[in-house]
UniProtKB/TrEMBL annotation:
<dbReference type="InterPro" id="IPR013098">
    <property type="entry name" value="Ig_I-set"/>
</dbReference>
<dbReference type="GO" id="GO:0005524">
    <property type="term" value="F:ATP binding"/>
</dbReference>
<protein>
    <submittedName>
        <fullName>BDNF/NT-3 growth factors receptor</fullName>
    </submittedName>
</protein>
<dbReference type="InterPro" id="IPR013783">
    <property type="entry name" value="Ig-like_fold"/>
</dbReference>
<feature type="domain" description="Immunoglobulin I-set">
    <location>
        <begin position="72"/>
        <end position="141"/>
    </location>
</feature>
<dbReference type="GO" id="GO:0004714">
    <property type="term" value="F:transmembrane receptor protein tyrosine kinase activity"/>
</dbReference>
<dbReference type="Pfam" id="PF07679">
    <property type="entry name" value="I-set"/>
</dbReference>
<dbReference type="GO" id="GO:0005886">
    <property type="term" value="C:plasma membrane"/>
</dbReference>
<keyword id="KW-0675">Receptor</keyword>
<dbReference type="InterPro" id="IPR020777">
    <property type="entry name" value="NTRK"/>
</dbReference>
<dbReference type="InterPro" id="IPR036179">
    <property type="entry name" value="Ig-like_dom_sf"/>
</dbReference>
<dbReference type="GO" id="GO:0007169">
    <property type="term" value="P:cell surface receptor protein tyrosine kinase signaling pathway"/>
</dbReference>
Amino acid sequence: MCLPTQIETSGQISVLRLSNLSSLDHNSKISCTAENIVGEKESSLLLDILFPPKILKLSDAIPDHHWCIPFSVAGNPEPQLQWFLDDKAVTEGVFIMTMIHDITEREYHGCLQLDSPTHLNNGRYKLSAKNKFGSDEREVEAHFMRKPWDGEERNVVFIKSSIHFLQNRQN
């Protein structure tokens, strides 16, 4: 990796400024060697690049032990995630929750887990990811179950019936 650099020196403090970095440079190792007439010194560090969230993947719902809407989000610092169903905030709890299964290089891989969803959970899901550097949103349609009244429209007719008892009368 060859990066444009600028070194500013004022007395005992030197500042190394790197430009044209991207989120792909996060956790890259950078080494700096200082040399003068009395010797040489080298130091290394890992770059901690701060960047806005980017939703890398938002896939269709898949049935597993629970239903899962898989996603991958990158961001540093860690993005705050919020789900919406048809533009209404999803309240997470025991039956609907965000699960992060793996974290790699400031990428968060997981799913919105739904336990036994019904037709009431069908709709357009939007994932919103935010941190102090920005935000990103993506949407996916999810269909878990047919509505009980889907299909042929049926007219229901109620028939009121009455039962008459006849008595035998003797005259």
